[in-house]
Write a structure and sequence with these properties.
By secondary structure, the chain is mainly beta. It contains 4 helices and 27 strands. A hairpin with a 7-residue loop joins strand 11 and strand 12. The longest helix has 23 residues, at 2-24.
Length: 401
């Protein structure tokens, strides 16, 4: 009997000690670890690293510990035929990884793309009209067969600046997407709904600084300016349109026509002209054009585009000496240029690495990651498209602490 009583006392004492331990572990000065919930279909997990990835477009060991978020994107149907020719197109796979350190956040983005598009609105010569013209950046349905666009590949992220956009977490990029606008206002546009709302837009453009110049993503933002709320962060843009208007030599009355501003006569299959090449004299200024479309250059040489087809349309493409539609500065500057990148195209896909400071000095137009809180975002791919984009909304960046 004494043995039973002793055992009972021991059980009671053990129970009391256990309760005391549990209570002591849940006091106000104690923190219980809550496992981070990850949705494999929507969540991009940024892993803390001590060695930063090298921005060279090569997937190296620095990314080994970062989980992959994989998804597909689709071009939606919108009003006004804005996405005509692209609607329903699917990017079958996009792969993302992320990492961060004390100062920066890093991204690796890869996606399928059947064509590397690096000729944006090139100039060609029409031997029938004797005029120079630029290829369209959209589908030309006035021709038979219709001509596909001459543009560039692009990619974009949208982020909520300072949690300013109402309902952002449930809609992300759709919170600023407005369709059904008057045709005069381009039918579909991005702008926020209230003056207090701002969105950080990272807009990579392959031809305009994405694979040349300083290799940068164009840092932009969206506000509620109607009808187009897409704006550039403070700074200087990287590109200018390579166009000018000249009077046809000897025409009376004077007839003005559009022609390229600069040409590199010895170059073939080129998609841009650097302004440094203009300064160096490699690119020549077009100083005159005659009634047959013959160009006179700044070194007094001439180009007769009627000879052969090098400057003309060739089938569904353009000849090897088609002239680029733009010139480029060395880089984006200011807040506009604070996202360095490196993009490489190979075997039907793009691989791009880029970084940005967790917190930039631009508190008005840049999202702040320094709190390491979850950030919802929207993502889009533009496959050789001006505005038609393939979308994945409601993604979430989560920091593994």
């Amino acid at each position: 009997m004494k043995h039973v009583q002793s055992k009972f006392v021991w059980i009671i004492a053990t129970f009391v000690l256990l309760i005391g331990y549990v209570v002591s572990c849940t006091k106000g000065d104690q923190v219980l670890d809550t496992p981070q919930v990850i949705n494999s279909g929507t969540d991009l997990v940024a892993v803390k690293v001590t060695t930063a990835p090298t921005l060279d477009g090569v997937v190296d060991a620095a990314w080994d510990n970062s989980p992959t978020l994989e998804f597909s994107t689709t071009v939606p149907e919108v009003t006004g035929d804005v996405f005509r020719g692209y609607t329903g197109n699917i990017i079958p796979w996009v792969k993302m990884k992320s990492a961060y350190d004390a100062n920066n956040i890093y991204f690796l983005v890869q996606w399928a793309d059947p064509t590397q598009s690096l000729k944006r609105n090139p100039w060609y010569f029409n031997p029938i009209t004797k005029r120079w013209a630029q290829e369209l950046g959209t589908f030309d349905f006035t021709t038979s067969p219709y001509r596909t666009p001459f543009y560039e590949d692009k990619m974009a992220f949208l982020w909520n600046i300072n949690n300013s956009v109402s309902g952002w977490n449930s809609g992300t990029c759709y919170k600023s997407c407005h369709t059904g606008l008057p045709a005069a206002d381009a039918s579909s546009r991005h702008y926020t709904n209230y003056p207090s709302e701002k969105i950080d837009m990272w807009h990579w453009k392959s031809v305009r600084g994405g694979v040349n110049a300083a290799n940068q993503i164009h840092d932009q933002y969206q506000n509620n300016a109607y009808p187009n709320g897409r704006k550039s962060d403070p700074g200087v843009d990287v590109y200018q349109n390579n166009t000018q208007s000249l009077v046809i030599t000897g025409s009376s009355p004077a007839v003005s026509v559009s022609v390229p501003k600069y040409i590199i006569p010895t170059r073939t299959d080129y998609g841009w002209i650097m302004n440094s090449e203009v300064t160096a004299g490699t690119a020549k200024l077009v100083t005159a054009v005659d009634a047959n479309g013959v160009l006179t250059l700044s070194d007094a040489s001439t180009i007769d585009p009627n000879v052969g087809t090098d400057y003309q349309r060739v089938g569904s493409g353009v000849g090897p000496k088609a002239v680029p539609g733009l010139t480029l500065n060395d880089s984006y500057t200011g807040s506009m240029g604070d996202i360095p990148c490196k993009a490489v195209y190979s075997s039907g896909s793009w691989t791009m690495e880029f970084k940005r400071a967790l917190k930039t000095t631009d508190t008005e137009y840049d999202v702040d990651f320094s709190s390491l809180e979850d950030q919802y975002f929207g993502f889009a791919i533009f496959e050789n498209a001006q505005i038609a984009h393939s979308i994945k909304a409601n993604l979430v960046l989560k920091f593994k602490k």
